[in-house]
Amino acid sequence: MPFELMTLRCSLRNLLRQKGRTGMTLASIVFGVVGLIVSGGFVEDIFIQLREATIHSRFGHLQIYKEGFYANGVKEPYDYLIAKPDAVKISVAAVPGVLDSMLRLNFSGLLNNGKSELPILGEGVEADKEAKLGSHLSLIAGRQLADNDANGMLIGEGVATSLGIGVGTFVTILANTPEGALNSLEFKVVGIFRTYAKDFDARAVRVSLAVAQELLGVEGAHAVVVSLDQTLSTDRVAATLRAGLSKSGFEVKTWFELDDFYANTVALYQTQLGVLQFIILVVVLLSVANSVNMTAYERVGEYGTLKALGSRNRQISLMIILENTLLGLIGASLGLILGTLLALVLSAIGLEMPPPPNSNVGYTAHIRLVPGVLLLSFAVGFFATVLSSLLPARGVARIPVVDALRQNI
Q: Domain range spanning residue 370?
């Protein structure tokens, strides 16, 4: 029988012979792999839910501005109006992957309820299209704004709380026109909304685009908001639009570029996940190394007998490493299976989570099965076991035959 096949059979027998020690080692590996799968899938779910909330409550997938608006539009908003936004929408519609596009006109002003005033950040919107895009914009009272609402207004939850107003309340917006004059219009609150961003809800109001243009005395819009059929197409569509529109004096921004909160949250959780992965790797490595060391040195007499019968140091080392390679393969595979099943069960149940920082909205978390996380979890469990066997394998194999045989006495 070839030496390699004989070594494999001996390794399997040794694992089955040391049932208690093998079971403890397998438990450590399985625990580590399951922990990595669940934690990685949980963090990935946070990223996906926050991404979709960002897109479908505030920014859309892409926004197109007149060049320079993103940097200077807050200071000089009327210098960056898109005079013919419908022509831009026609160009956008021709790009594969685009689902819809809509116009927004940004403004700032004072909202007055007859008793007090609040500085607000307003948006004139194409209401019916915004209602379709805003699947993550939750109405806590009233209804959505419609295109035919001549004097209707949606307000953020924070605005309603600050001014003590509700659905049906009449309020007035006071805003500056491009010439510096003051203009005011009366509105009726038709709905109160809540997004994932508490700061946005504290200042945001929405009115129909035509009414916002009347309030400011302007035509056109500041932004063309683009909705896509798939979020993963964002970078491709953005590159296509930049290539076609940059020569005409427009700039294209993705939702990721527009929301610093998302980028900071991703960076934070990725760091935390990296630390967690390192801790689990160390725990698995130490647990398995301890078990391997104890098993190896308990069997010194056995290895001495094999060396006395003609086995070489290399062969003894190979046997120990092969045993732990099989152990790592079995443990990582079991961990992968159990971690996947646990993720599916937890996702079916749903985990009710409290509101994250800067938000009033809780959410139901799930455990995402991400191929990269599954592969990494398996690799950590497997290679941690193999690496932990290298030093004991070398140390035991180098014990002189005479000293090793004394362990049999």
A: 3-53+263-406
